[in-house]
Amino acid sequence: MKKKKGNSLFERFANAATKFTGSSPAFIGAAAIVILWAVTGPLFDYSETWQLVINTGTTIITFLMVFLIQKAQNKDGKAIQLKLNELIAAQEHTSNRMVDIEDLTEEELDQLHKYYVKLAMLAKNETDIHCSHSIDAAEELNQEKSKNIKHYKKTKKDGHATGTKSNN
Predict the structure, then answer these.
(1) Which of 65, 100, 123, 164 has its CA 20 to 30 A from that of 51?
(2) How many Cβ atoms are within 10 Å of 14's Cβ, its own excluded?
(3) Strand, coil or helix: 44
């Protein structure tokens, strides 16, 4: 996928900063700073100023990193949600009601959770994984889905895909 030229300066900085801070050289650099600080303790008689340097530095860096990490998590979370929504929309036997369920109340999410806990309990009764996850079952499912896909039919006049799939 191509990078968009419209990314803001902050967006580019945040991406670069989160990529760097999660790297081995960043960790090694941070560890080296702490070791250097610790080694200089005797030179400064372990003074309050010596302690204040590391405390202030780490506090400022931590404060700024909270925002960068949150930005990265928000972006990653949104990307994951979009990928999951695409998978839900593309599957024949899934409910489109599951798209954007993160907007539901805690009680509504608990109700859905109970449903999937029950489904998992029922699945545990299937002791032979080869029945539900065999190559034959995969081929049959693929053939069934290929027959039912209306979403990818082409029109004669413009050659573009038409139709929408509704999974409720």
Answers:
(1) 65
(2) 19
(3) helix
pTM greater than the 0.85 cutoff: no
Are 97 and 168 in contact by the 8 Å Cβ rule? The answer is: yes
Tell me, rounded to whole angstroms, the distance of Cα 19 from its chain centroid. Answer: 15
- What is the distance between the alpha carbons of residues 143 and 109, in angstroms, rounded to a whole number? 34
Cβ atoms of 55 and 62 within 8 Å: the answer is: no
CA distance 156 to 147: 20
- Nearest C-alpha neighbor of 100 from the set 74, 76, 82, 75: 82
Specify the amino acid at residue 45: D
CB 71 within 8 A of CB 77: no
Task: Classify residue 103 by its DSSP letter.
Answer: G
- Give me the count of residues in the chain: 168
Q: Where are the alpha helices (DSSP H) in the chain?
A: 9-21, 24-39, 48-90, 106-124, 129-132, 135-148
Which spans in 91-134 are helix H?
106-124, 129-132
Kindly give the confidence (pLDDT) of every residue in the chain, 168 residues in length, as a single tens digit, with 9 standing for 90 and above.
555 566 889 888 988 999 999 999 999 999 999 999 999 999 999 999 999 999 999 999 999 999 999 999 999 999 998 998 898 888 888 888 888 788 889 999 999 899 888 888 887 777 666 666 678 777 887 787 777 766 555 444 444 444 444 444
